[in-house]
Amino acid sequence: MDFFQYKNNQLMAENLLVSQIVKEYGTPAYIYSKATLVRHWNAFNDALGEHPHLICFAVKSNPNIAILNIMATLGSGFDIVSQGELERVLVAGGDPKKVVFSGVAKSVTEITRALEVGIRCFNVESLSELYRINDIAKKLGKKAPISLRVNPDVDAHTHPYISTGLKENKFGVTVERAREVYNIAKQLEYIEIEGLDCHIGSQLTELQPFLDATDRLVILIKQLEQDGIQLKHLDLGGGLGVTYTDEKAPLPSEYAKTIFEKLKGYENLEIILEPGRAITANAGILVTKVEYLKTNEERHFAIVDAGMNDMLRPALYQAYMNIIEVDRSLERETRIYDVVGPICETSDFLGKQRQLAIAEGDFIAQRSAGAYGASMASNYNSRPLAIEIMVDDDKSHLIKRRASFEELWRLEALVK
Ligand code: LLP
């Protein structure tokens, strides 16, 4: 459930009219609902209930510091994949002791910084990384907390670009190899084994792949016990899907129930989850203005002021995201439109063949845009990034302003 609903045919963000917000701030604009973010985070936290657990919000889904700050205030942990994300978490008031560091290519600088600030755990992706972390920890005279990211070889039944748990993917080490790597880790003086980690993909709409993965991890946990390696936590990653159209995504409570069944006898093993999309996707919309309507022999086009640089998901994953009118009280003819942006590429669309009642100058909103929207945006075609606005009840806050044109080339220099 989210807090973007119609009232008298006007789209509301909590208790504000979306049309008023964009008249004040301009478009393209991401609008987020604080109440929705809080509700989604709590759904995960409550689902795990009394079982020891930590919800580590996946920063990559939406790294705006205002969002990270809301998460930090809730007591959230964070899943990061770069030093940039770490610095954002710190600036936003996040607790480094609740940060897990994922990612396949952690650099020396990144590992050093993470050790200095004292993160909760490195999710190690290879033997080489393990040795690198041990070396750096030695130089700093610290012990590095680690878990090994295991690739359980299960099919997540999601888009191939966001599926990560198959042997053909670059992530983690195989279950077969993991036992050996843990035993090496045990010998390393500056490594402290904390847990076991896995992330099999994103936008999963079935629980079965998670359960298959957990089964394999439990077998490994038992083998490690035989080797005298006692784990403190199990990190099951992110990946729980959301409803973009008519998908039936499992609820966090359903997910948690099935995890508990799989972990009978491990009531003290802390569970870490790294949800991103399930918290942010439906907590945000992308609002755009219809600049032109154009018709040729084949199609009607709604040409809008947001493009694939603002929202890449349709172009990159053929993602289907709902598009709705901001004001349904207006008298408009209904037509089937391809909603396209200003970028000079045919892949530049927000949605194809959408029924909309619109005229030039109207606003429309792409739903479920809070995850991997602003975070994957670029300045392609030298377009300043969309602004971001947080709505909290009947107040709006500009949480990212539009850059000036000078700021677009501020880091560049002429050849002297
Ligand atoms: N943990 C790790 C290690 C991850 O790689 C990811 C996402 C997550 C957690 C969070 O997954 P979530 O709960 O958000 O599904 N850009 C794509 C999604 C890429 C996901 C990458 N990893 C999209 O727009 O669909």
UniProtKB/TrEMBL annotation:
Active-site annotation: C344
SUPFAM superfamilies per record: Alanine racemase C-terminal domain-like, PLP-binding barrel
Enzyme class, broadest EC rank: lyase
Pathway recorded for this protein: Amino-acid biosynthesis; L-lysine biosynthesis via DAP pathway; L-lysine from DL-2,6-diaminopimelate: step 1/1
Residues where pyridoxal 5'-phosphate binds: G239, E274, P275, G276, R277, Y372
Family membership noted in the UniProt record: Belongs to the Orn/Lys/Arg decarboxylase class-II family. LysA subfamily.
HAMAP family to which the protein is assigned, alphabetical: LysA
Protein name per its UniProtKB record: Diaminopimelate decarboxylase
Organism: Bisgaardia hudsonensis
The gene coding this protein: lysA
